[in-house]
Specification:
Largest sheet: none
CATH class of the largest domain: Mainly Alpha
CATH architecture of the largest domain: Up-down Bundle
Order of helices and strands: HHHHHHHHHHHHHHHHHHHH
Radius of gyration: 22 Å
Distance between the termini: 22 Å
Helix content: over 70%
Number of strands: 0
């Protein structure tokens, strides 16, 4: 292991460019299709019932297969998994852009999810093994964290531009140049340390249980949105998810080469990071959705103007990640960046609960979005780095996959949960104000805004909980590093030396 520490790869900064490009493509894909969806639906004659599957097919395949993808990159080699994921993602995107009917589009979205699940953990774990010196690692993760956070917003902007000026199909085709450039670059500059490989066999029962369990969980929230929380199918899916994931944990305790070594989860720092990132994703993805609807439906913004409205948030996210997070990460314990960051973002959301039919963008929405961006950027950056902190190189893929899993599952839960809350608040408001209403259209808009702000209040609560988790769990033991690692049965020699506090 010593050569990994003394001789850092001279081309690692070039490698970072291509890794970041691939990450941008995957994150961007989670939102770019949202804005293009109405046009694609009209063009291909997709029914209202099947419409959500364009989003869900991607989320299910991606969220369900992430742990498997992470383990594959540990076994197979991260560079190989990364390049394969890129090529597959480009092919699936070409298929989606050329779709002639609903089935072809949904199949392409599921395939994008499958290759995304191979690509995303490989990208993050390549960073973990290429950058091992604390200050450099802080910089590399600053760039990566900014892209991971801002990609969703970039997706909204590009989605708006393509839909308005070109065609919804370009929201798929745009991935092809990204993937080709990133794959060509990765092949030429990435050299993966050989010690990082994990030669053990693949845990097939673990793969099946984890995939089915995560798919049931994500699909359960999707059905809750369409059929209600008390519907038989919704309850059945949640019960199935609990049973499958419980069985998965039991299997992982007993098999020789587990898919998810429990030592990765039981470290309290990493556990805290996964939970707080998942909660933050719930709050954030839900909010993106409401603001998009509010600006387009209530305020009558065009898709492009809606996308551009998110630009200041992205700028602040990048600032928080690269200027605040990176500079302070090696000096301040991670929880003192994560907790205040999440709280600042929650304060920004409180501003956004004040929206009305004629709210000023400059006075209310803009400062709210900027506070959110700055807070999220500051918090995401140390979280991304801590998630792979002190992990044995052979587990880096799985530890990275858990970051993506918590964000993906959180995003799917957030969209469904907050949507359901908003819909019922909207209906209640409409019913209770119907009697005295003189203008039904006005009342409809008022009800929608009431529904959105109710859901955003929930998001504020969830984000505050995320800050609390970070404060209580992350970095709880003084020094943070070797003590936590050795408790998991790793020696200090095994662990990648990361952040010194």
């Amino acid at each position: 292991m010593s050569d990994l520490r003394t001789e850092a790869d001279p081309r690692r900064w070039k490698a970072l460019i291509f890794i970041a490009l691939a990450q941008l493509m995957v994150v961007l894909d989670a939102t770019i299709v949202n804005i293009a969806l109405p046009s694609a639906q009209a063009d291909l004659g997709i029914s209202d019932g099947n419409r959500q599957w364009v989003i869900t097919a991607y989320a299910l395949a991606f969220g369900g297969l992430l742990l498997f993808g992470g383990r594959i990159s540990d076994l197979w080699g991260r560079k190989r998994a990364f390049v394969t994921g890129l090529i597959g993602f480009a092919a699936a995107s070409a298929l989606g852009g050329a779709a002639v009917n609903t089935a072809m589009l949904l199949g392409a979205r599921a395939l994008q999810g499958v290759f995304g699940a191979l690509l995303a953990p490989a990208a993050l774990s390549l960073l973990a093994v290429l950058f091992t010196e604390a200050k450099e690692r802080a910089k590399a993760f600053g760039v990566f964290g900014a892209i991971a956070g801002a990609g969703g917003g970039v997706g909204l902007i590009l989605g708006g531009l393509f839909t308005e000026y070109l065609n919804w199909r370009w929201t798929f085709f745009v991935n092809i140049p990204f993937a080709v450039v990133a794959a060509a670059g990765a092949i030429s500059v990435i050299r993966e340390p050989a010690e990082g490989r994990n030669p053990s066999k693949l845990d097939i029962p673990g793969v099946i249980l984890a995939t089915l369990g995560l798919v049931s969980l994500v699909y359960g929230f999707t059905r809750a949105e369409s059929d209600g929380w008390s519907a038989g199918i919704t309850i059945g899916l949640f019960v199935a998810a609990a049973v499958l994931l419980g069985a998965f944990l039991l299997v992982e305790r007993s098999v020789k080469a587990p898919l998810m070594p429990l030592r990765v989860l039981t470290d309290r720092n990493r556990g805290g990071v996964y939970i707080s990132l998942g909660l933050a994703a719930i709050a954030m993805f839900g909010l993106f959705l409401f603001l998009t609807y509010y600006l387009q439906v209530v305020r009558g913004y065009s898709p492009v103007k809606t996308g551009l409205s998110f630009l200041p948030m992205i700028a602040m996210m990048i600032t928080g990640s690269t200027q605040i997070g990176t500079r302070l990460m090696t000096r301040v314990p991670a929880r003192w960046l994560m907790a205040p960051g999440f709280l600042l973002a929650a304060a920004g959301m409180v501003l956004l609960t004040q929206i009305d039919l004629d709210t000023s963008y400059a006075a209310v929405i803009l400062p709210g979005l900027m506070m959110m961006g700055l807070g999220m950027g500051t918090a995401f950056m140390p979280a991304m780095s801590l998630a792979t902190h002190g992990v044995q190189p052979r587990d880096a893929g799985v530890a990275s996959a858990m970051v993506n899993t918590s964000q993906q599952v959180g995003g799917a839960i957030g969209t469904a949960l907050l949507n359901t809350i908003a819909a019922s608040a909207t209906t209640d408001y409409f019913k209770s104000h119907m009697a005295g209403a003189t203008n039904p259209k006005l009342l409809t808009f008022q009800s929608m805004v009431h529904g959105y702000s109710t859901a955003v209040w929930w998001a504020v609560g969830i984000l505050s909980l995320s800050a609390l988790v970070a404060l209580v769990f992350v970095n709880a033991n003084p020094g943070g590093g070797p003590a936590a690692s050795s408790a998991d049965g790793e020696t200090a020699e095994d662990a990648i030396p990361v952040m010194a506090h």
